[in-house]
Amino acid sequence: MTDEIEPGLFGLQNNTNRDFRLQETWGKNQFPSSFPASLCCYFYSKGINANYLCFRNGESIVEEISIPDIFGKKPDDEDTFFAFESVYTPFNRYVIGNLPRTDLVVQEKKSGICLSGLEIKLTALPDNVTCNSTENLYGSEIVVRPDTIVYLACSIATSLNGKLGNILPNITVDDWEIPYQVLIKASELIDAIDSISISLNDSQSPFLLQPIWKTKGKSPELSENCLDIFVWSNAGFCRFISEIAKSNLNGSISRQMRTVIWLFKMLEGIKKVGQFDHKLIIDSMSFNNKNDKAFASSGNITNRFMRCDRLSKPILKKEEIKNIILGGGQNLLSPERRFDAIIYNSPELFK
């Protein structure tokens, strides 16, 4: 039966810009975003909601959110289209120059209308920092790109719907490119981002999709319950950034603090003129750090925000992976990354 089915992923057939018959589609640059989208489709087919990492009533909490609420449409609707590595065009109005592409844009196939734009991070649980901890303290490392912060600023502005000018304070710095002058205002900048998180209370929206795959400690063997989906709201992720920046105030500008500065300057641009120049902001405010990533947080940090029963025991069992990767697609994987390698080297999952 398997040989009669073309390689593919559940829910992603003729409704995507990726061709899963091609081996390149299963490579390290595409599979880590394709598989999470398929996993969402599978969750929907099983009536399972995702975990929603949001900031509500002054507290970072984990709720549930339905897959249609993440995508803006039912994933099995014949008019739903999954455009990977695409531009979420409603955000074009906020940027000077070209808007970066995001990992997944869910569209209406016929009209091309964009319904949601999602950053995707497929992460391992536990990471190297938490692998020797008890399971309730396991966490996943998350590495965030500068482009993610561009999309976060746009998402915040959209959710606040014109209210940004009344919320974001005016913070004056003589020269934003001189570290010590910016550091003087570090606490004010963090407080400003905190105020944004609070103001998004009733209008926050899904922003970043972070599925987890769990192994048995350090081993390359999947846990029996190994897959789940976590989704950060824009408010939840905004709060996450301000909290980790606050804990990294040490007399220099950390990557986390730099991210706060970038986000503030982007929002300030929207407040003042309706747009921001993301390339100028990122390049001129590197503060002696490389711009290849915005920041990274290890599992002992992310655990505080993601901790719940389903982080300790993910909802999906490993036996169901064969229902998501279809038609022998596992044989096209390039085992360059840990999750790919585990599936590639676990043929028993597909028996």
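The above is record 1. Record 2 follows with the same two-line structure.
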Amino acid sequence: MKLRRCLLLLTLLILSYCKEDRPHSGIFDRTDSMDNGIVDPKLIQFDAASIAKTGISNPGGVVSCWLMDSDIERPRKISFADAMKDMGVKYIRFPYGHLADNYLWDADGDWGNTLTPKVATKSETPGNWDWAVDSLSRDFIKDMDFDEYISICKEVEAEPMVVVNIMSYKYTNGPSYEELKESAVEWVRYANVVKGYNVKRWALGNEVDHHPDVITLSEYKVLYSDFAAAMKAVDPTIMVGPGLLGNWFSSMLKHDPGNIDFICAHNYLYNYNWRLQDYEGWKNTTDKMVNNIQSCQSAVNNSSIPDIEIHATEMNSRPWSENSDSDDLFRALAYGEMLMNAVSLDNVVATYVWNTHGPWSGPDKNVSYNVLDLDNERGPRGDVIKLINDNISENLIKMEPVQDFLRIYATINDNKDELTIFIINKNDQPNKVVLKPANFNLPTIYGVRSYYGSNPFVKIPVLSDWQQLEVGNDQLDVDLPALSMNIIKLKASE
């Protein structure tokens, strides 16, 4: 008996050692990861026939930087176009955020086929960056020009979102108001009349409401109507929208609804105090984390144009109390939650992550909240965007996403025969769920894939292979690893 007991104890010790120390294989053993502390599985019931929103398609877009993203001038291990295709990106913003306020089409008065982008004034960034701007000509160095941008959009089959400079007439040594207006008008002419690019969306300014000391609300209202009317006179089919951060929504919608075809909002985590607790703060909060986009949706709902598009033209899961620029597992999962919460709002068409490459530290230093590194390899946030774009279906099912530490979203395709469920487990403990979708013919087999890691700060999470599991008792019993995004796919039985 003593010998048998010793052998049993030795066997248990060996198994325990192997379980803790084996390397990640990318294939997740669902029974292996579950903790004995998880007692009761979470029951999730929803009606697959109850649709909350239609017309969803690849909602995870990007903010591109014309100074950094050129495949022609800055060839990398992976081309920018291929990186966008791999992420399933269908919306690309150009030329950038605040730096777009110093981006000017200029042809020395000779408009037509020779438009050349230049910095509007050397008195503002990036005019003083010698690696980015020629000090004499004011031409950009190694930039992605507008033609290359459009060629990439066409290759990727992405929708352009162009940010028009409306601010530089306020800058020292900047162009006049009329010169800036002419630049906007001729940009539309070049794009859609001369070149036939059919660029639809033109945002007037970037976070204009974030700079009331530079341009006031009343000034922006006058400028907006003036620019929009002049641009539409060149091409009446274009869509024009205010480029806002998180204020002025209602004021602009009331001011000139006839010239507003979409509206922009930006969303970060600055207004949430729980972010100062880093992972623990995100784990425990039930906030939607998209307060500005919610405010924009409310303003649109209460306007005379309640059907216009909302574009979250900047969004990122940052900053945090420390390591705010890290791109790791929990910040990626937080971004996935933000993206799904944003796209759940009625009028949101697309989100644009800030950013592909940031130029603020120079051309040769990668900022870790960038979606791509200097070789155009994806980081964790980029992984999550790809997972959502690759798997989301056209119709969002009505359900409550907040379930303890879980965030649950379900989509179904237009044919109503493919159901996709996204579950984010924010907890650092594994969990179990029982899914019971009504009004959907359950198959005998369904697929599960998990994106996860051993702790919140893992910088190279594991993406499991697809696993085929059996449906039992008209329900799906799913084991969720700790700190994970999980995708469950079902094809309806005949």
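DSSP finds eleven helices and 22 strands in the chain.
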